[in-house]
Design goal:
103 residues; 4 strands; mainly beta; 0% helix; two-stranded parallel sheet
Length: 103
């Protein structure tokens, strides 16, 4: 079994869902008005400590992680659902550093 002590991963939260444009229209209601729903929030990226792990070998082959996209809004003021989170399982006592880009 290989032991990997350092890993570089790229993470990004999920995109929010698209809102909906719709208008209420009923026969005996004089002014209907808009009734579109908002899009759902995108999923987060979460790091979870696991006691059974002792290496970062899982992140050698998969380095890009992204939360899922939120659901789209619908008519009748229905908001979209939230996107699923991306969970990174890491050994305990690990440190995360943000790497800045040089332009």
């Amino acid at each position: 079994m290989k032991f990997l002590d350092q890993a570089k991963v790229h993470v990004r939260s999920g995109d929010g869902g698209a809102g909906c444009v719709s208008f209420r229209r009923e026969k005996f209601i004089e002014f209907g008005g808009p009734d579109g729903g908002d899009g759902g929030r995108g999923g987060d990226v979460v790091a979870e400590c696991v006691d059974g792990l002792n290496t970062l070998i899982d992140y050698r082959y998969q380095q890009h992680f992204k939360g899922k996209t939120g659901m789209h809004g619908m008519g009748k003021n229905r908001a979209g659902g939230r996107g699923a989170d991306a969970v990174l399982k890491v050994p305990s006592a690990r440190r995360f550093m943000k790497r800045t880009r040089r332009r």
